Amino acid sequence: MTNKLSSSEKFLWDYIQTNLTDIPELSIIKLSDDAKVSTATIVRTMKKMGYSGYTDFRQQLTANTKNNFKYKNLEKVDHDIKQAIFKNKYEVDNTLRSLNVGSIEDAIQKIKESSDIYIFARGFSEFIASEMLVKLQLLGKNCIMSSDPNIIVTMSKRIKREDLVILITLNGETSELVEGAKNAYQNGVSTLTITTNEESSISKYSDMTLLGFKSQTSYFPDYEVRSRLPLQVISRILLDSYVIRTQRTK
């Protein structure tokens, strides 16, 4: 959804994510003053993000915040630490909102039908790929995982049509993953991408895409070590759902 935002709307959305715990107390006029954007920009941003307006967004955020404060231990948490906690919850909540049930069902069916499954990932996404590898192998699937750039590119050229390629990438722009997806796609191999970037280069080579929500706030701005929490949530939902579906059909 954030790909539909203008530069000023993205700035506002990033500002809101950085100040989530303060938003329920801010009127649209106060937010306009604090974020240095017009009230019209606020309204447009909210509508593009799926809300009827700022009031709707604030009410939903307030309801979520009240639910969080059922846990007494959060009431005494430092303001900045509380922001970090809500950042993670916000990523999970919006990832669940973004998930398409039909896409999950399609992915389950494709995993079930595939002879071999190849999982490609780089960086921190490798940890998620490794977990998926073990779980799929435990479920009796013939599964191979690689994080090596040269192996990904070379192997993707040799994968058979009856197989499945799963790509795990936060931004969907890692060159070797894009090339691997392209190789598989051009050879008629089914590709499933788990990402947070709907408009990424890799998406045009993906038969199926499971989309998560990535917060723009990073506590390590000088390094590319952003949280893969949205990808982790999606992978767990996918494999849990796969187990449920395959057990029912036995």
From TrEMBL:
GO terms for molecular function: carbohydrate derivative binding; DNA binding; DNA-binding transcription factor activity. Residues 1-68 form the HTH rpiR-type domain. Keywords: DNA-binding, Transcription, Transcription regulation. Residues 107-249 form the SIS domain. It holds the Pfam family SIS. InterPro entries: Homeodomain-like_sf (IPR009057), HTH_RpiR (IPR000281), RpiR-like (IPR047640), RpiR-like_SIS (IPR035472), SIS_dom (IPR001347), SIS_dom_sf (IPR046348), WH-like_DNA-bd_sf (IPR036388). This is Transcriptional regulator. It comes from Companilactobacillus kimchiensis.
